[in-house]
Design goal:
By secondary structure, the protein is an alpha/beta fold. It is built from 9 helices and 7 strands, in the order ααβαβαββαβααβααβ. It has a 7-stranded mixed β-sheet with strand order 3-2-1-4-5-7-6, with helices on both faces. The chain is globular and about 45 Å long.
């Protein structure tokens, strides 16, 4: 685990309003047995525990998995990658993880295998390859995604997005400044705390289709089970 990643995992874990926003966005699909991929120190897994009948937290980093075990009472912690768990899962949560994985399509195929027939993959990835900069390199990001690229990769894996859109346009501005202009290797603690306080005012933007955003948010189901009404980014 890199020093910038450790620093920012701690910082992001304290951004309660932002993390609650992510879970609220995913909540309609959260039920039954849920897999949290790349669970880290449990920032999302602890919230998922309140919404699902069973949570399995997948974290391959031994240091993070140890912290997670200490925190995650009632959650099964698996110190491995997605090949080490057995489905089916009613929902798979993968927030800001896929961009770290070299074989992202192979991982998406594994998610498809793990999903229950009516299950949903809830995916958040960094958007806009043009925003790739110092923060991405420090965090070990392999890539940032375009909307068409993400749709194509989901399709290659046998998954069909019922939701695919940009979110968090204000965050994109902050990332541009920090990663491309200042070329920093950490999220600014002061800026992150300010942003977290602004989250209640920013939530209504989720209802507006936007061409830009820090992230792409996707809800994907196995091909053939997805709703015909797909929202595009």
């Amino acid at each position: 685990m890199t020093e910038p990643l450790a620093h920012d995992l701690d910082a992001m874990a304290g951004a309660d309003a932002y993390n609650d926003w992510l879970i609220r966005r995913a909540r309609p699909w959260l039920h039954g047995r849920v897999l949290d991929v790349g669970a880290g120190i449990g920032t999302h897994a602890l919230r998922l525990r309140e919404l699902a009948a069973e949570v399995v937290a997948l974290e391959p980093d031994p240091e993070l998995a140890a912290i997670l075990r200490d925190r995650a009472d009632g959650i099964e912690v698996v110190e491995a990658d997605a090949g080490a768990v057995e489905g089916p899962f009613d929902a798979i949560v993968c927030f800001n993880v896929l961009e770290h994985i070299p074989d992202d399509v192979g991982t998406l195929r594994r998610f498809k295998e793990l999903l229950a027939p009516a299950g949903a993959l809830l995916l958040l990835v960094p958007a806009h390859p043009a925003l790739y900069g110092s923060l991405d390199r420090a965090f070990g990001h392999e890539r940032r995604y375009g909307a068409r690229e993400l749709r194509d990769k989901l399709g290659q894996a046998g998954l069909e997005p019922t939701v695919l859109r940009h979110v968090n346009p204000v965050g994109a501005v902050g990332w541009l400044v920090q990663a491309r202009i200042r070329r920093g290797e950490h999220l600014g603690d002061g800026g992150l705390k300010l942003y977290d306080r602004l989250v209640p005012a920013l939530r209504p933007l989720d209802a507006i289709p936007l061409p830009v955003g820090l992230s792409l948010w996707a809800v994907a189901k196995t091909t053939g089970s997805a709703s015909a009404s797909t929202r595009n980014a």
